[in-house]
C-alpha cells in the first residue's frame, strides 16, 4: 500500500509586533466590556461586594483574563504573552499619566483664583494676615528667592557636575571608582541631612547668617549627585570610535573631550541638568534650615532670610483659613509653570543633536565656504597668470594647499 505524502504546511504569516491590528483593537474592547459586565454582575447580583477600588481592580483582572482567552483563539503562545505584557505595560503607563493629569488639573483648579489677581505676582506678604483677601499680598518674594537660589545652585552644580562626570569617564582607575561609589550613595541622601550639613558647617562654624546663599549650597548638595550620575551615563554612551578618530588626527585627550565628547552628548547633558533642577527646585526642608522664613522681598542672597516657592506653599497651607490655602495652591501652580519654563529653556539650549547647527551657525558656515571658494579661485587664477607669463623652460611652482 503506497504511503501518503504528508500535507504541505501552510506558510507562516509574519506578524508585526510593533503596531496594533484590527483584531487586537476589537479584542481589547471586547475584553474590557466583558470585564466590566462580569464585575457588575458580581457586585449587583451574586456577591455582597462593594467599594469603588475593589470594583476597578476586579474589572481589570477580569479584563486581563478575557483578553488572554480572546487572544488564544487566533494566536500562538508567544504572541499571546507579548500582547498581554503590552496591555499590562500600557495600563501602568496610562495610570501614571492619569495620576499626573489629576494632580496638575486639581492644582490648576484650586489655584486659578489666586492667579487671576495681578497683585499676586507683584507684591509680597509684608503686613498681610491670614484673614485678609487675595487682593492683598502676593508671592513676589518667593518667586525671586527661588530664582536666586536655583540660579546660584546651577552656577555651582553645572561646571562641577559635568567636570566630575568627565573625570569618571575619561580617567578610569581606582580613585574614579571610589568617587562613582560615593556619588551613587549620595543620590539617596535625605534632604534634611544636606540642610543640617550646611547649617552646621556654613552657619555655625563659618559664621554665615541665614541667607539665600546658604540655601543655595544646600540645594547644590542635593543636585550635584543627580547631575553627576546622569551626565556620567550620557558621556559613557558616546561611541568610542569618535574618540579614536579624534586621537588619530592628533588631538589631545582633553581637546577630544571638549570638541567631540561634550558636543555629542549635549542633549543628554541638558537632560541631566533638568533632572538636577527638578530635584533642587522643589526642596523645602534645606531651605527652611539654612534660609529661614520671611514675608518680605529680599534681593541680597548673602544676608537675611530668603523664602522659596516650596517653602511658601508649606507656610500657606499650614493655615486653616481658605484664603491662605488658595494662596498655597496658587503658589504651587506658579512653581509648576516655572519648572515647565525652565525645562523648555534647557531643551531649547541643549536639545539639538550631534552635528545639528543653529540657523546662525549655518549662515556662518555658508559665508566661510563662500570666502574659501573665492580665495581658492583667486589663487588658481594667479597661478594661471604666473604660468602664462613665465618662460617656457621655467620650472612650475606648486602653491601649497591647492
TrEMBL record:
Annotated compartments: Cell membrane
GO BP: any one term: phosphate ion transmembrane transport
Biased composition (Basic and acidic residues): 369-384
One term under GO cellular component: plasma membrane
Region entry Disordered, spans: 354-402
Membrane topology according to the record: Multi-pass membrane protein
Main localization of the protein described in the UniProt heading: membrane
GO terms, molecular function: phosphate transmembrane transporter activity
Transmembrane segments: 25-43, 49-72, 84-109, 139-168, 188-208, 214-235, 256-278, 329-350
Entry keywords, A to Z: Cell membrane, Membrane, Phosphate transport, Transmembrane, Transmembrane helix, Transport
Domain ABC transmembrane type-1: 143-346
Top-rank taxon, per record: Bacteria
Pfam families recorded: BPD_transp_1
Family membership noted in the UniProt record: Belongs to the binding-protein-dependent transport system permease family. CysTW subfamily.
PANTHER family found in the cross-reference section: PHOSPHATE TRANSPORT SYSTEM PERMEASE PROTEIN PSTA (PTHR42922:SF1)
Functional summary from the UniProt entry: Part of the binding-protein-dependent transport system for phosphate; probably responsible for the translocation of the substrate across the membrane.
Name of the molecule in the record: Phosphate transport system permease protein PstA
UniProt organism field: Thermobifida cellulosilytica TB100
Amino acid at each position: 500500500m503506497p504511503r501518503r505524502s504528508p500535507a504541505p504546511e501552510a506558510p507562516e504569516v509574519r506578524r508585526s509586533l510593533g503596531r496594533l491590528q484590527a483584531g487586537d483593537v476589537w479584542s481589547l474592547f471586547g475584553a474590557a466590556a466583558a470585564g466590566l459586565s462580569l464585575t457588575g454582575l458580581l457586585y449587583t447580583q451574586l456577591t455582597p461586594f462593594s467599594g469603588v477600588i475593589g470594583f476597578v481592580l476586579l474589572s481589570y483582572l477580569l479584563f486581563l483574563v478575557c483578553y488572554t482567552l480572546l487572544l488564544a483563539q487566533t494566536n500562538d503562545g508567544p504572541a499571546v504573552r507579548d500582547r498581554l505584557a503590552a496591555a499590562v505595560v500600557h495600563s501602568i503607563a496610562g495610570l501614571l499619566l492619569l495620576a499626573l493629569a489629576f494632580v496638575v488639573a486639581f492644582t490648576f483648579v484650586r489655584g486659578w483664583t489666586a492667579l487671576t489677581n495681578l497683585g499676586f505676582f507683584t507684591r509680597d506678604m509684608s503686613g498681610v494676615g491670614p484673614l485678609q483677601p487675595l487682593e492683598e499680598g502676593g508671592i513676589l518674594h518667593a518667586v525671586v528667592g527661588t530664582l536666586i537660589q536655583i540660579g546660584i545652585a546651577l552656577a555651582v552644580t553645572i561646571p562641577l557636575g559635568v567636570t566630575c562626570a568627565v573625570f569618571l569617564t575619561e580617567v578610569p582607575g581606582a580613585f574614579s571608582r571610589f568617587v562613582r561609589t560615593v556619588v551613587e550613595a549620595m543620590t539617596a541622601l535625605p534632604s534634611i541631612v544636606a540642610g543640617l550639613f550646611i547649617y552646621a558647617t556654613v552657619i555655625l562654624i563659618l559664621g554665615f547668617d541665614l541667607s539665600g546663599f546658604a540655601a543655595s549650597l544646600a540645594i547644590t548638595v542635593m543636585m550635584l549627585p543627580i547631575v553627576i550620575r546622569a551626565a556620567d551615563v550620557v558621556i559613557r554612551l558616546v561611541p568610542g570610535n569618535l574618540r579614536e578618530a579624534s586621537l588619530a588626527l592628533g588631538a589631545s585627550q582633553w581637546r577630544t573631550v571638549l570638541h567631540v565628547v561634550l558636543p555629542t552628548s549635549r542633549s543628554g547633558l541638558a537632560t541631566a541638568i533638568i533632572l538636577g533642577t527638578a530635584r533642587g527646585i522643589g526642596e523645602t526642608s534645606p531651605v527652611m534650615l539654612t534660609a529661614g522664613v520671611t514675608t518680605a522681598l529680599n534681593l541680597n542672597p548673602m544676608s537675611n532670610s530668603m523664602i522659596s516657592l516650596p517653602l511658601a506653599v508649606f507656610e500657606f497651607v499650614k493655615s486653616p483659613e481658605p484664603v491662605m490655602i488658595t494662596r498655597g495652591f496658587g503658589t504651587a501652580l506658579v512653581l509648576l509653570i516655572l519648572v515647565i519654563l525652565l525645562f523648555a529653556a534647557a531643551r531649547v539650549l541643549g536639545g539639538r543633536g550631534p552635528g545639528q547647527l543653529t540657523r546662525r551657525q549655518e549662515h556662518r558656515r555658508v559665508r566661510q565656504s563662500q570666502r574659501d571658494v573665492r580665495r581658492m579661485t583667486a589663487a588658481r587664477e594667479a597661478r594661471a597668470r604666473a604660468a602664462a607669463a613665465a618662460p617656457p623652460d621655467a620650472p612650475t611652482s606648486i602653491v601649497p594647499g591647492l
